[in-house]
Amino acid sequence: MACSRTLILLSLFTVHSILAKRRLICTTAFSRGANAYCPSGYLATGCACGMGCGSWDIRGDAACHCQCANIDWTSARCCKVAIVG
């Protein structure tokens, strides 16, 4: 019983030490037109559209699409969780 308790404590310590090193890393992707794509490994967390358009959606987890006609630019805020250190 003591051996399994020690193993559980070591496992919890390992999980805690990994979680303590997590960081949210974000970048912005910009594109002309109605679509902006996040770099590989990043997820879209929000979008912005040119020409005062406030209608957008996230497609496939990593792309922003502005829904207004004749959009001149689109940007995507892209984030991922990384283990650092």
Output the structural class: alpha+beta
Question: How many β-strand runs?
Answer: 6
> Average pLDDT across residues?
88
- Number of domain modules: 1
Per the principal axes of the C-alpha atoms, what is the gross shape?
rod-shaped
- CATH architecture descriptor name: Sandwich
Low-confidence stretches: none
Beta-sheet strand percentage? Answer: over 45%
Distance between the termini: 34 Å
Helix content: 10-25%
- Main sheet? 3 strands, antiparallel
Main CATH class: Mainly Beta
- Give the topology string: H per helix, E per strand: HEEEEEE
Please tally the helical runs, counting DSSP H or I stretches of 4 or more residues: 1
Task: Give the C-alpha Rg.
Answer: 20 Å
Strand order within the widest beta sheet:
1-6-3
CATH homologous superfamily label: Resistin head domain
CATH topology: Immunoglobulin-like
